[in-house]
Give the backbone structure.
Amino acid sequence: MSSLDPELAWYVARGSGLVAYLLMAISVCLGIAVSKRWHAERVPRLLVAEAHRSVVSTLYIFIILHIVTVATHMPEQVSSLDYVVPLLSDYHTKRMALGIVATQLAFALGLSVWARKWIGFRAWRLLHCLAYPMFLAALSHGIAAGSDTSTIWGMAVYGGSILAVLCATAWRLRCTARVAVLRPRSVWSRVGGSA
């Protein structure tokens, strides 16, 4: 990695971080769609689930690329352990910690998919609630550490992704509330009551 042109490495680090963040936002939105069994008329549910898996797999590639290329610009006193343990590094401590937390949550969610048969569906689903703090940590890391945050297109990327995740979350909550309201009526009508 040392033979890579420093300027090129810096652009790759910035670009891969931004792409990883966008993939994270897309994965949260697709995860919500999968959890609510959403599909369009011409888009089968299986395709939505496969898109979610593909986005997450690609996300991991860009996270690793981001970490490796950022490491080429770090001062020598930043150790390998500093990339794994939040708040350990003296170099941009909080900014790095947010990125580390987002990365750890992303990989924990991925591991939960493989461990689902051992931990059970309920624990797996509960672990997937970590997607929200993962997204917030990645967003905070990107805004605090990103060198393109103050550009118009940088603000558009962050604003658009926040809006997308908020809309998807609101839709999920609305669907969940609607199901909660409908269930008691259907149970009540089965036992002979009037709805």
Notes: Residues 186-192 have pLDDT under 50 and may be disordered. The chain has five helices and no strands. The two ends are 68 Å apart (CA to CA). The longest helix spans residues 152-190.
